[in-house]
UniProtKB/TrEMBL annotation:
The lineage of its organism: Bacteria, Bacillati, Actinomycetota, Actinomycetes, Mycobacteriales. It holds the Pfam family PUA. One of its GO terms (cellular component) is cytosol. Its EC number is 2.7.2.11. It comes from the Bacteria. This is Glutamate 5-kinase.
Length: 370
Protein backbone atom coordinates (compact mmCIF):
# COMPACT_ATOMS: atom_id res chain seq x y z
CA UNK A 1 0.00 0.00 0.00
CA UNK A 2 1.40 3.44 -0.85
CA UNK A 3 1.99 5.93 1.98
CA UNK A 4 -0.22 8.50 0.22
CA UNK A 5 -3.23 6.23 0.55
CA UNK A 6 -6.21 6.97 2.72
CA UNK A 7 -6.31 3.92 5.02
CA UNK A 8 -10.00 4.41 5.72
CA UNK A 9 -11.05 3.28 2.23
CA UNK A 10 -9.39 -0.11 2.60
CA UNK A 11 -10.58 -0.36 6.22
CA UNK A 12 -14.14 0.37 5.06
CA UNK A 13 -13.89 -2.34 2.40
CA UNK A 14 -12.30 -4.82 4.81
CA UNK A 15 -15.03 -4.32 7.42
CA UNK A 16 -18.03 -3.95 5.05
CA UNK A 17 -20.98 -5.94 6.37
CA UNK A 18 -22.64 -6.59 3.05
CA UNK A 19 -20.55 -7.15 -0.09
CA UNK A 20 -20.98 -7.94 -3.77
CA UNK A 21 -18.14 -9.91 -5.35
CA UNK A 22 -17.91 -9.97 -9.16
CA UNK A 23 -15.64 -12.50 -10.81
CA UNK A 24 -14.70 -12.06 -14.47
CA UNK A 25 -14.67 -14.70 -17.23
CA UNK A 26 -10.91 -14.44 -17.63
CA UNK A 27 -10.43 -15.54 -14.02
CA UNK A 28 -12.82 -18.50 -14.23
CA UNK A 29 -12.57 -20.00 -17.69
CA UNK A 30 -10.12 -21.10 -20.33
CA UNK A 31 -11.00 -21.31 -24.02
CA UNK A 32 -9.66 -24.86 -24.43
CA UNK A 33 -10.45 -26.41 -21.08
CA UNK A 34 -13.57 -24.50 -19.98
CA UNK A 35 -14.24 -23.79 -16.31
CA UNK A 36 -11.31 -23.76 -13.89
CA UNK A 37 -12.85 -25.80 -11.06
CA UNK A 38 -9.84 -25.41 -8.73
CA UNK A 39 -10.10 -21.63 -9.05
CA UNK A 40 -13.81 -21.83 -8.22
CA UNK A 41 -13.04 -23.90 -5.11
CA UNK A 42 -10.44 -21.37 -3.93
CA UNK A 43 -12.87 -18.51 -4.55
CA UNK A 44 -15.65 -20.31 -2.68
CA UNK A 45 -13.20 -20.82 0.24
CA UNK A 46 -12.37 -17.10 0.34
CA UNK A 47 -16.06 -16.11 0.06
CA UNK A 48 -16.97 -18.57 2.80
CA UNK A 49 -14.23 -17.12 5.05
CA UNK A 50 -15.70 -13.65 4.53
CA UNK A 51 -19.16 -14.95 5.49
CA UNK A 52 -17.69 -16.67 8.56
CA UNK A 53 -16.27 -13.27 9.53
CA UNK A 54 -19.81 -11.85 9.53
CA UNK A 55 -20.41 -10.45 6.02
CA UNK A 56 -23.36 -11.10 3.72
CA UNK A 57 -22.08 -11.99 0.25
CA UNK A 58 -23.66 -11.82 -3.20
CA UNK A 59 -21.63 -13.28 -6.06
CA UNK A 60 -21.85 -11.90 -9.61
CA UNK A 61 -20.25 -14.53 -11.79
CA UNK A 62 -19.34 -14.12 -15.44
CA UNK A 63 -18.12 -17.11 -17.38
CA UNK A 64 -21.28 -18.56 -18.96
CA UNK A 65 -20.14 -17.85 -22.51
CA UNK A 66 -16.56 -18.89 -21.71
CA UNK A 67 -17.80 -22.16 -20.17
CA UNK A 68 -19.95 -22.92 -23.22
CA UNK A 69 -17.14 -22.61 -25.78
CA UNK A 70 -15.42 -26.00 -25.35
CA UNK A 71 -18.60 -28.15 -24.96
CA UNK A 72 -19.96 -26.70 -28.22
CA UNK A 73 -16.70 -27.41 -30.05
CA UNK A 74 -16.06 -23.70 -30.74
CA UNK A 75 -12.50 -22.43 -31.09
CA UNK A 76 -12.87 -18.90 -29.74
CA UNK A 77 -15.30 -16.60 -27.94
CA UNK A 78 -18.21 -16.08 -30.37
CA UNK A 79 -18.96 -12.56 -31.54
CA UNK A 80 -22.47 -12.87 -32.99
CA UNK A 81 -25.42 -12.62 -30.63
CA UNK A 82 -27.08 -15.98 -31.44
CA UNK A 83 -23.89 -18.02 -30.87
CA UNK A 84 -23.07 -16.02 -27.73
CA UNK A 85 -26.54 -16.79 -26.42
CA UNK A 86 -26.22 -20.49 -27.33
CA UNK A 87 -22.82 -20.65 -25.59
CA UNK A 88 -24.25 -18.87 -22.55
CA UNK A 89 -27.17 -21.28 -22.31
CA UNK A 90 -24.78 -24.26 -22.29
CA UNK A 91 -22.21 -22.55 -20.07
CA UNK A 92 -24.61 -21.09 -17.49
CA UNK A 93 -25.76 -24.59 -16.58
CA UNK A 94 -22.17 -25.71 -16.02
CA UNK A 95 -21.31 -22.50 -14.17
CA UNK A 96 -24.24 -22.69 -11.74
CA UNK A 97 -23.53 -26.38 -11.13
CA UNK A 98 -19.85 -25.68 -10.50
CA UNK A 99 -20.63 -22.92 -7.97
CA UNK A 100 -23.15 -25.24 -6.29
CA UNK A 101 -20.51 -27.99 -6.00
CA UNK A 102 -17.79 -25.62 -4.72
CA UNK A 103 -20.03 -24.13 -2.02
CA UNK A 104 -21.52 -27.53 -1.09
CA UNK A 105 -18.04 -28.46 0.29
CA UNK A 106 -18.89 -25.89 2.99
CA UNK A 107 -22.50 -27.05 3.40
CA UNK A 108 -23.62 -23.84 1.68
CA UNK A 109 -26.58 -23.66 -0.75
CA UNK A 110 -26.50 -21.38 -3.80
CA UNK A 111 -29.34 -19.76 -5.73
CA UNK A 112 -29.10 -18.63 -9.36
CA UNK A 113 -30.38 -15.12 -10.18
CA UNK A 114 -30.39 -14.10 -13.85
CA UNK A 115 -31.15 -10.44 -14.59
CA UNK A 116 -31.39 -8.13 -17.58
CA UNK A 117 -30.87 -4.37 -17.72
CA UNK A 118 -34.59 -4.06 -18.35
CA UNK A 119 -35.35 -5.82 -15.05
CA UNK A 120 -33.24 -3.32 -13.15
CA UNK A 121 -34.82 -0.35 -14.94
CA UNK A 122 -38.41 -1.35 -14.16
CA UNK A 123 -39.58 -0.66 -10.62
CA UNK A 124 -41.68 -3.84 -10.18
CA UNK A 125 -38.98 -6.23 -11.44
CA UNK A 126 -36.35 -4.25 -9.53
CA UNK A 127 -38.31 -4.71 -6.29
CA UNK A 128 -38.81 -8.43 -6.99
CA UNK A 129 -35.10 -8.98 -7.62
CA UNK A 130 -34.38 -7.08 -4.41
CA UNK A 131 -36.77 -9.35 -2.47
CA UNK A 132 -35.26 -12.52 -3.94
CA UNK A 133 -31.74 -11.42 -3.03
CA UNK A 134 -32.88 -10.47 0.47
CA UNK A 135 -34.69 -13.72 1.08
CA UNK A 136 -31.77 -15.84 -0.19
CA UNK A 137 -29.55 -13.90 2.20
CA UNK A 138 -31.86 -14.39 5.16
CA UNK A 139 -32.07 -18.12 4.40
CA UNK A 140 -28.28 -18.37 4.49
CA UNK A 141 -27.90 -19.13 0.76
CA UNK A 142 -25.50 -17.36 -1.60
CA UNK A 143 -27.00 -15.67 -4.65
CA UNK A 144 -24.95 -16.26 -7.80
CA UNK A 145 -26.01 -13.56 -10.26
CA UNK A 146 -25.34 -13.27 -13.99
CA UNK A 147 -26.88 -11.46 -16.90
CA UNK A 148 -29.78 -13.40 -18.43
CA UNK A 149 -27.81 -13.73 -21.67
CA UNK A 150 -30.31 -15.86 -23.56
CA UNK A 151 -33.04 -13.21 -23.48
CA UNK A 152 -30.95 -10.02 -23.41
CA UNK A 153 -30.56 -8.40 -26.83
CA UNK A 154 -27.66 -6.25 -28.03
CA UNK A 155 -29.67 -3.08 -27.36
CA UNK A 156 -30.64 -3.83 -23.80
CA UNK A 157 -27.60 -5.81 -22.58
CA UNK A 158 -25.80 -4.59 -19.51
CA UNK A 159 -22.86 -4.90 -21.87
CA UNK A 160 -20.66 -6.25 -19.18
CA UNK A 161 -20.99 -7.76 -15.77
CA UNK A 162 -18.94 -5.01 -14.10
CA UNK A 163 -21.89 -2.69 -14.58
CA UNK A 164 -24.35 -5.40 -13.56
CA UNK A 165 -22.33 -5.94 -10.36
CA UNK A 166 -22.35 -2.22 -9.52
CA UNK A 167 -26.13 -2.06 -10.10
CA UNK A 168 -26.61 -5.14 -7.92
CA UNK A 169 -24.47 -3.51 -5.20
CA UNK A 170 -26.84 -0.53 -5.34
CA UNK A 171 -29.95 -2.75 -5.45
CA UNK A 172 -28.80 -4.80 -2.46
CA UNK A 173 -27.61 -1.80 -0.44
CA UNK A 174 -24.12 -3.34 -0.28
CA UNK A 175 -21.30 -1.61 1.62
CA UNK A 176 -18.50 -2.68 -0.74
CA UNK A 177 -18.00 -4.10 -4.23
CA UNK A 178 -15.12 -6.39 -5.24
CA UNK A 179 -14.19 -6.74 -8.91
CA UNK A 180 -11.98 -9.82 -9.22
CA UNK A 181 -10.25 -10.26 -12.56
CA UNK A 182 -7.08 -11.70 -14.13
CA UNK A 183 -5.20 -8.45 -13.46
CA UNK A 184 -4.05 -7.41 -9.98
CA UNK A 185 -5.37 -3.83 -10.09
CA UNK A 186 -5.65 -0.70 -12.19
CA UNK A 187 -2.49 0.37 -14.05
CA UNK A 188 -1.84 3.71 -15.68
CA UNK A 189 -1.72 1.88 -19.04
CA UNK A 190 -2.55 -1.58 -20.35
CA UNK A 191 -0.03 -3.82 -18.51
CA UNK A 192 0.12 -6.21 -21.52
CA UNK A 193 1.59 -3.42 -23.62
CA UNK A 194 4.76 -2.75 -21.64
CA UNK A 195 5.73 -0.68 -18.63
CA UNK A 196 2.77 0.33 -16.55
CA UNK A 197 2.46 1.46 -12.93
CA UNK A 198 -0.11 0.06 -10.47
CA UNK A 199 -2.41 2.71 -9.00
CA UNK A 200 -3.16 1.67 -5.41
CA UNK A 201 -5.96 4.11 -4.75
CA UNK A 202 -8.45 6.23 -6.68
CA UNK A 203 -9.87 8.92 -4.39
CA UNK A 204 -11.81 10.71 -7.16
CA UNK A 205 -11.96 11.30 -10.93
CA UNK A 206 -8.76 13.43 -10.90
CA UNK A 207 -6.74 10.30 -10.03
CA UNK A 208 -7.77 8.85 -13.39
CA UNK A 209 -6.27 11.69 -15.46
CA UNK A 210 -3.89 10.16 -17.98
CA UNK A 211 -4.91 6.57 -17.22
CA UNK A 212 -5.34 4.48 -20.36
CA UNK A 213 -8.04 1.85 -19.83
CA UNK A 214 -7.53 -0.79 -22.50
CA UNK A 215 -9.63 -3.65 -23.81
CA UNK A 216 -10.06 -7.00 -22.11
CA UNK A 217 -8.59 -10.43 -22.83
CA UNK A 218 -9.88 -13.08 -25.24
CA UNK A 219 -12.67 -14.01 -22.81
CA UNK A 220 -13.47 -10.75 -21.02
CA UNK A 221 -16.06 -8.33 -22.34
CA UNK A 222 -15.49 -4.77 -21.28
CA UNK A 223 -11.80 -4.58 -20.35
CA UNK A 224 -10.59 -1.92 -17.94
CA UNK A 225 -12.89 0.82 -19.30
CA UNK A 226 -15.95 -1.08 -18.11
CA UNK A 227 -14.40 -1.58 -14.68
CA UNK A 228 -13.74 2.15 -14.38
CA UNK A 229 -17.28 3.05 -15.37
CA UNK A 230 -18.62 0.45 -12.91
CA UNK A 231 -16.40 1.93 -10.20
CA UNK A 232 -17.87 5.37 -10.98
CA UNK A 233 -21.38 3.96 -10.84
CA UNK A 234 -20.65 2.29 -7.48
CA UNK A 235 -19.04 5.50 -6.18
CA UNK A 236 -22.26 7.40 -7.03
CA UNK A 237 -24.19 4.77 -5.08
CA UNK A 238 -21.88 5.36 -2.10
CA UNK A 239 -20.15 1.99 -2.47
CA UNK A 240 -16.32 1.72 -2.36
CA UNK A 241 -14.71 -0.76 -4.78
CA UNK A 242 -11.69 -3.04 -4.62
CA UNK A 243 -10.31 -4.17 -7.99
CA UNK A 244 -7.96 -7.14 -7.52
CA UNK A 245 -6.83 -10.43 -9.03
CA UNK A 246 -9.07 -13.44 -8.46
CA UNK A 247 -5.87 -15.30 -7.59
CA UNK A 248 -5.55 -12.93 -4.59
CA UNK A 249 -9.16 -13.43 -3.46
CA UNK A 250 -8.08 -14.49 0.04
CA UNK A 251 -6.19 -11.25 0.68
CA UNK A 252 -8.73 -9.10 -1.15
CA UNK A 253 -11.69 -10.44 0.81
CA UNK A 254 -9.64 -10.79 4.00
CA UNK A 255 -8.01 -7.46 4.80
CA UNK A 256 -8.29 -5.67 1.43
CA UNK A 257 -4.54 -4.97 1.29
CA UNK A 258 -4.14 -5.86 -2.40
CA UNK A 259 -5.34 -4.31 -5.67
CA UNK A 260 -6.74 -0.84 -6.32
CA UNK A 261 -9.20 0.74 -3.88
CA UNK A 262 -11.76 3.24 -5.26
CA UNK A 263 -13.33 5.60 -2.73
CA UNK A 264 -17.07 6.27 -2.82
CA UNK A 265 -18.47 9.81 -3.24
CA UNK A 266 -18.51 11.67 0.07
CA UNK A 267 -22.29 12.03 -0.27
CA UNK A 268 -24.30 9.25 -1.86
CA UNK A 269 -26.44 10.28 -4.85
CA UNK A 270 -30.18 10.16 -4.05
CA UNK A 271 -31.94 6.98 -5.18
CA UNK A 272 -33.98 8.95 -7.75
CA UNK A 273 -30.93 10.69 -9.28
CA UNK A 274 -29.03 7.40 -9.30
CA UNK A 275 -31.89 5.73 -11.16
CA UNK A 276 -32.02 8.55 -13.73
CA UNK A 277 -28.26 8.51 -14.23
CA UNK A 278 -27.50 4.80 -14.22
CA UNK A 279 -30.48 2.45 -14.17
CA UNK A 280 -33.34 3.84 -16.22
CA UNK A 281 -33.61 3.11 -19.96
CA UNK A 282 -33.67 6.27 -22.06
CA UNK A 283 -36.56 6.78 -24.48
CA UNK A 284 -35.18 9.64 -26.57
CA UNK A 285 -32.82 12.55 -27.03
CA UNK A 286 -33.23 16.30 -26.62
CA UNK A 287 -30.71 18.43 -28.52
CA UNK A 288 -29.95 21.73 -26.77
CA UNK A 289 -28.15 24.94 -27.75
CA UNK A 290 -24.86 26.12 -26.24
CA UNK A 291 -26.50 28.39 -23.68
CA UNK A 292 -28.69 25.58 -22.37
CA UNK A 293 -25.68 23.21 -22.29
CA UNK A 294 -23.84 25.69 -20.04
CA UNK A 295 -26.93 26.22 -17.87
CA UNK A 296 -27.45 22.52 -17.22
CA UNK A 297 -23.76 22.08 -16.40
CA UNK A 298 -24.46 24.66 -13.66
CA UNK A 299 -27.32 22.52 -12.34
CA UNK A 300 -30.04 24.78 -13.77
CA UNK A 301 -33.30 23.45 -15.26
CA UNK A 302 -33.54 22.95 -19.03
CA UNK A 303 -35.96 25.61 -20.35
CA UNK A 304 -38.03 25.35 -23.57
CA UNK A 305 -36.07 28.16 -25.27
CA UNK A 306 -32.86 26.05 -25.24
CA UNK A 307 -34.31 23.11 -27.18
CA UNK A 308 -33.05 22.68 -30.77
CA UNK A 309 -34.53 19.28 -31.58
CA UNK A 310 -36.10 16.14 -30.14
CA UNK A 311 -35.75 12.50 -31.18
CA UNK A 312 -37.46 9.34 -29.97
CA UNK A 313 -40.89 8.26 -28.80
CA UNK A 314 -41.01 9.57 -25.28
CA UNK A 315 -43.86 10.66 -23.03
CA UNK A 316 -43.84 12.97 -20.02
CA UNK A 317 -42.10 11.16 -17.14
CA UNK A 318 -39.68 9.17 -19.34
CA UNK A 319 -35.91 9.49 -19.05
CA UNK A 320 -34.10 11.08 -22.02
CA UNK A 321 -30.52 11.95 -22.91
CA UNK A 322 -29.74 15.65 -23.21
CA UNK A 323 -27.16 16.19 -25.96
CA UNK A 324 -25.37 19.33 -27.11
CA UNK A 325 -25.30 20.60 -30.70
CA UNK A 326 -22.12 18.56 -31.30
CA UNK A 327 -23.93 15.34 -30.32
CA UNK A 328 -22.17 14.81 -26.96
CA UNK A 329 -24.37 13.54 -24.14
CA UNK A 330 -24.31 16.18 -21.38
CA UNK A 331 -26.98 14.86 -18.99
CA UNK A 332 -29.91 12.54 -18.49
CA UNK A 333 -33.21 13.68 -17.09
CA UNK A 334 -36.90 13.05 -16.58
CA UNK A 335 -38.77 14.92 -19.32
CA UNK A 336 -41.87 16.93 -18.38
CA UNK A 337 -43.53 16.77 -21.84
CA UNK A 338 -44.45 14.31 -24.60
CA UNK A 339 -42.34 14.33 -27.78
CA UNK A 340 -44.99 16.25 -29.78
CA UNK A 341 -45.08 19.01 -27.19
CA UNK A 342 -41.31 19.35 -27.25
CA UNK A 343 -41.50 19.53 -31.05
CA UNK A 344 -43.78 22.58 -30.72
CA UNK A 345 -41.13 24.40 -28.65
CA UNK A 346 -38.35 24.22 -31.23
CA UNK A 347 -37.26 27.64 -32.48
CA UNK A 348 -39.55 29.57 -30.10
CA UNK A 349 -38.72 31.77 -27.16
CA UNK A 350 -40.61 31.23 -23.91
CA UNK A 351 -42.89 34.26 -24.55
CA UNK A 352 -44.09 32.79 -27.88
CA UNK A 353 -45.26 29.56 -26.25
CA UNK A 354 -48.73 28.84 -24.89
CA UNK A 355 -48.82 28.97 -21.06
CA UNK A 356 -48.97 25.16 -20.80
CA UNK A 357 -45.55 24.82 -22.49
CA UNK A 358 -43.58 27.33 -20.43
CA UNK A 359 -42.51 25.09 -17.54
CA UNK A 360 -38.96 23.62 -17.61
CA UNK A 361 -38.52 20.78 -20.09
CA UNK A 362 -36.41 18.96 -17.49
CA UNK A 363 -36.41 20.31 -13.96
CA UNK A 364 -32.99 20.71 -12.30
CA UNK A 365 -33.96 18.17 -9.60
CA UNK A 366 -34.53 15.57 -12.33
CA UNK A 367 -31.39 16.34 -14.35
CA UNK A 368 -28.12 14.48 -13.73
CA UNK A 369 -24.85 15.33 -15.48
CA UNK A 370 -23.07 12.54 -17.37
N1 LIG B 1 -5.10 0.30 -17.46
C1 LIG B 1 -5.27 -1.02 -17.27
N2 LIG B 1 -5.03 -1.54 -16.03
C2 LIG B 1 -5.22 -2.87 -15.80
N3 LIG B 1 -5.63 -3.76 -16.75
C3 LIG B 1 -5.90 -3.29 -17.99
C4 LIG B 1 -5.71 -1.90 -18.30
N4 LIG B 1 -6.05 -1.73 -19.60
C5 LIG B 1 -6.42 -2.95 -20.07
N5 LIG B 1 -6.33 -3.90 -19.11
C6 LIG B 1 -6.67 -5.32 -19.33
O1 LIG B 1 -8.01 -5.54 -18.86
C7 LIG B 1 -8.12 -6.95 -18.60
C8 LIG B 1 -9.28 -7.20 -17.68
O2 LIG B 1 -10.49 -6.95 -18.37
P1 LIG B 1 -11.44 -8.19 -18.82
O3 LIG B 1 -10.68 -9.14 -19.69
O4 LIG B 1 -12.70 -7.59 -19.35
O5 LIG B 1 -11.66 -8.88 -17.41
P2 LIG B 1 -12.84 -9.68 -16.74
O6 LIG B 1 -13.04 -10.93 -17.54
O7 LIG B 1 -12.32 -9.94 -15.37
O8 LIG B 1 -14.06 -8.80 -16.73
C9 LIG B 1 -6.80 -7.35 -18.02
O9 LIG B 1 -6.43 -8.62 -18.45
C10 LIG B 1 -5.82 -6.29 -18.53
O10 LIG B 1 -4.83 -6.80 -19.35
N1 LIG C 1 -22.95 -12.85 -19.02
C1 LIG C 1 -21.68 -13.04 -19.65
C2 LIG C 1 -20.77 -12.02 -19.03
C3 LIG C 1 -19.81 -11.50 -19.93
C4 LIG C 1 -18.94 -10.49 -19.21
O1 LIG C 1 -19.32 -9.37 -18.85
O2 LIG C 1 -17.75 -10.95 -18.93
P1 LIG C 1 -16.60 -10.23 -18.10
O3 LIG C 1 -16.12 -9.03 -18.84
O4 LIG C 1 -15.58 -11.30 -18.01
O5 LIG C 1 -17.16 -9.90 -16.75
C5 LIG C 1 -21.13 -14.44 -19.36
O6 LIG C 1 -21.45 -15.01 -18.32
O7 LIG C 1 -20.38 -14.96 -20.18
Amino acid sequence: MSTSENPTVRAEIASARSVVVKIGSSALTDIDSGLDLDRLDRLADALEARMAAGSDVIVVSSGAIGAGIAPLGLKRRPTDLATKQAAASVGQLALAHAWGTSFARHGRTVGQVLLTAHDISMRAQHANAQRTLDRLRSLGAVAVVNENDTVATDEIRFGDNDRLAALVAHLAGADALFLLSDVDGLYDGDPRKGDARLIPEVAGPADLDGVIAGSGGALGTGGMASKLSAARLAADAGVPVLLAAAADAGAALGDATVGTAFAARPTRMSARRFWVRHAAETRGRIVVDDGAAVAISRRKSLLPAGVLDAHGRFSAGDVVDVVDSGGAIRARGVIAYDVDEVGEMVGKSTGDLPPGLRRPVVHADDLVGV
